[in-house]
Specification:
Oligomer: heterodimer
Strand content of chain A: 35-45%
Distance between the termini of chain A: 16 Å
Order of helices and strands of chain B: EHEEHEHH
Number of helices of chain B: 4
Radius of gyration of chain A: 26 Å
Distance between the termini of chain B: 9 Å
CATH superfamily of the largest domain in chain A: Kelch-type beta propeller
Shape of chain B: elongated
Largest sheet of chain B: 4 strands, antiparallel
Strand order of the largest sheet of chain B: 2-3-1-4
Helix content of chain B: 40-55%
Structural class of chain A: mainly beta
Largest interface: A-B, 42 and 34 residues
Structural class of chain B: alpha+beta
Number of strands of chain A: 58
């Protein structure tokens, strides 16, 4: 047998027992003690905290734009005398901006750096406040108050769809009260199961919030109980490993981290949540409580806090390895580029960056084209369409198969759809001729369709983005030709907002109401034009590599999108798929089957679904696009 | 690149997987025609889906017939109905 060292030229050390410690990190060795396997020393796939720029005003009990990012964050209010200072972070340093109108401590935050929200807290005069303020990137303006004034409150979501929960009005009082903000006013919804104050919190959306720990009565009655909110109600899930009180958090109810806090005793502990369980990961450099958080489970900020003195510290969390949300059977903590020895197969393996590909999904029950799609890869709706006649059929995909659900009230085709399989919307379309330019709008509640406020501009072949409480529809065909019209939906009515630069129909649109994209489409010929929406206006950005219309596609926001298939000039369908990273389109792996007038859904350019369409004729085929976070290759001598 | 031509009915989930798509060329066409890259992975997939082997000429004829039917259907649409779709175009197999 050939010796390993003659192949590689480097001997592998034989060690009895385990090695540990930073000085051994990166070493591969053979453990001769009993089990006799190769081992690798390293903090595999672990995230780390690095120091960031210091706040200008040290404080604790501050709020942050929970849906902000590591490089675009907002911190405001806080204790150390009730404070009104507001600061913006650019990934390097904090800059003072315009102050809150109402100074206060123990304030909660939501939104982003350019569309932030602060609510609740304890003002300088003492007691509680329900004051809500919106930040537009420049200044704060007062809005309608919370129904339940309180401090020790936490929140999440975006400026037009935020969530407030927990808190206290003082003394032994602890609140389970939960309220939803729609951009105008707060509405009380289902309570937390356990009343508490000062929990840790996650949530970039109303529908992906999490409440961890907190204090249930005066004194050190800190808990580890965790609940997640799905947009309607709170559900108890697995407890954190360590009690939490005053912890910060970043991410969502399926992928996030909670850090710091008081259990009692100041904590540096960070716990990662994968939607199922908590795992202790790397500690903060500086233990503290009453700090704020922002960002995601893999890229977060820990801001300020009490050490116990007011802290100006910022720490930045980066996770370069594989997310705990994506375990694989034979290596759950892999980092791209790592070599390891699999003791079961007795082979060396290496991890490398995942490569996206389309795989077949479950077939539709009714082959058809020109309907509308919404949802994510594992939970989508195909709404209406045609097979020669116009249909009201709706099918639901669960990641494996399609099931027919309740029809829409008015059969149509060339409509658009947005939202999720539990809260969706379909608007516009054609029912004729006659009736080619529909204003019809129907809302899906997970089991049935209800007619809601009509569009201002009837049209077909339109695109959309957002949710059933903060939506957007744009482009399409009106009687005069292609349309640039853009309408915003607030859950009850449509309002015209800034038009597209290029009128067109049959493009791929997606994203959220404050960050959307429209790619391609049709005038007299398929287009490559791409425009992005920032919440107030459309800007033309880099073209698609291949002009096309009647495409499938989806977008997470205006920096993350995917377009696939469609009709290309001078005619003919394409399998071509392109991915958008916020600055340019990159061609990636092709669909298996070229098609047009089909539907797409998905969460991002890493996970999407293509279904139906014309190949021709009408097809029932579904394809699933997935970019794995990493792949594993077994090393051989060949 | 040499290709093979088969007919096979797409049964849906796992008819082709992500791993298979990275191992060989695969292109679905009208009339259940599939163009398959000529390597061992492609051969294994043809066995898996019980593919019926065709010559390129036979496969092209199947596709042409499907397209001609679709073109005739489109031609019969009213002018208004035609505004919402394009006439199906001919496909030449790779």
């Amino acid at each position: 047998m050939t010796a390993f060292k003659t192949i590689k030229g480097v001997p592998v050390k034989t060690i009895s027992g385990d090695r540990a410690g930073a000085s051994f990190e990166g070493q591969l060795y053979y453990d001769s003690d009993g089990v006799g396997i190769f081992k690798f020393v390293g903090a595999l796939g672990a995230g780390t905290w690095a120091s960031g720029g210091a706040l200008n005003t040290a404080r604790n009990g501050l709020g942050a734009a929970q849906a902000g990012t590591q490089t675009a964050s907002l911190a405001f209010g806080g204790e150390g005398g009730s404070k009104n200072e507001s600061e913006e972070y650019n990934g390097t340093s904090w800059t003072e901006g315009n102050n809150l109108n109402t100074a206060r401590a123990s304030i909660a935050g939501a939104g982003t750096q350019t569309a932030g929200l602060g609510f609740g807290g304890s003002p300088a005069s003492g007691g509680t406040t329900g004051v809500t303020e919106e930040y537009n990137g420049t200044s704060w303006s007062e809005q309608n108050d919370l129904n339940s004034a309180r401090y020790g409150i936490k929140g999440g979501g975006i400026q037009t769809a935020a969530l407030a929960f927990a808190g206290t009005t003082g003394g032994s009082n602890r609140l389970a009260v939960t309220e939803k903000y729609d951009g105008t006013s707060w509405t009380e919804v289902n309570d937390l199961n356990t009343a508490r104050t000062d929990p840790g919190n996650l949530g970039t959306l109303q529908t992906n919030s999490l409440c961890a720990g907190g204090n249930t009565s005066p004194g050190a009655n800190y808990i580890s109980s965790v609940e997640t909110f799905d947009g309607t109600s709170w559900t108890e899930v697995a407890n954190t490993n360590v009690n939490k009180h005053g912890a910060g958090g970043a991410g969502t109810s399926t992928d996030g981290i909670i850090f710091g806090g008081n259990i009692p005793g100041l904590q540096a502990v960070t716990e990662a949540w994968n939607g199922t369980s908590w795992t202790e990961v790397a500690d903060l450099a500086t233990a503290r409580t009453a700090l704020a958080g922002a960002g995601t489970g893999s890229s977060a900020l820990a801001i300020g806090g009490a050490q116990p003195a007011n802290s100006s510290l910022t720490e930045e969390w980066s996770f370069s390895g594989i997310s705990p949300t994506s375990p694989v059977a034979d290596y759950t903590e892999a980092k791209v580029g790592q070599l390891y020895f699999n003791s079961t197969s007795k082979t060396f393996k290496v991890t490398y960056a995942g490569v996206g590909a389309w795989a077949s999904g479950g077939n539709l029950n009714t082959a058809r084209m020109a309907g509308a799609g919404l949802g994510i890869q594992t939970a989508s709706l195909f709404v209406a369409g045609e097979t020669g006649s116009i249909l009201g059929i709706v099918e639901n995909y669960n990641g494996t198969s399609w099931t027919e659900v309740a029809d829409i009230n008015t059969a149509r085709k060339a409509n658009t759809a947005l939202g999720t399989t539990s809260a969706g919307l379909t608007a516009g379309g054609t029912i004729g001729p006659p009736g080619r330019y529909q204003t019809l709008n129907e809302i899906w509640n997970g089991s049935g369709w209800t007619e809601a406020g009509d569009l201002n501009t009837g049209r077909n072949s339109l695109s959309s983005a957002g949710t059933t409480t903060a939506g957007l529809v744009f482009s399409g065909v009106v009687s005069a030709g292609e349309s640039a019209t853009n309408e915003s939906w607030n859950g009850s009515a449509w309002t015209e907002v800034a038009d597209l630069n290029t009128a067109r129909n049959n493009g791929t649109g997606g994203g959220i109401s404050t960050s959307a994209i429209l790619a391609g489409g049709l005038t007299t010929t398929p287009l490559a034009i791409t425009e992005t929406w920032n919440g107030s206006s459309w800007t033309e950005v880099s073209d698609l590599n291949s002009a096309r219309s009647q495409t499938g596609g989806t977008a997470q926001n205006n920096t993350n999108a995917i377009v696939f298939g469609g009709r290309t000039p001078p005619g003919g369908d394409t399998v071509n798929t392109e991915s958008w990273d916020g600055s340019s389109w990159t061609e990636i792996a092709n669909l298996a089957t070229a098609r047009d007038q089909f539907q797409g859904s998905g969460a991002s350019n890493s996970s999407a679904l293509a279904f139906g369409g014309s190949t021709p004729p009408y097809t029932n085929a579904t394809e699933e696009w997935t970019v794995p976070e990493f792949a594993i290759k077994t090393l051989t001598t060949s | 690149m040499a290709n093979k031509y088969i007919t096979a009915s797409n049964w849906g989930k796992d008819f082709f997987t992500h791993e298979e798509r990275t191992n060989f060329y695969l292109s679905g066409q009208p009339a259940n025609v599939w163009v398959v890259g000529d390597n061992s992975f492609g051969d294994a997939w043809i066995v898996k889906v019980s593919g019926v082997s065709k010559t390129k000429v036979e496969a092209q004829a199947l596709v042409d017939a499907e397209i001609e039917t679709a073109q005739a259907t489109w031609d019969a649409l009213s002018a208004e109905e035609k505004e919402n779709s394009d006439r199906p175009t001919d496909i030449t197999l790779p």
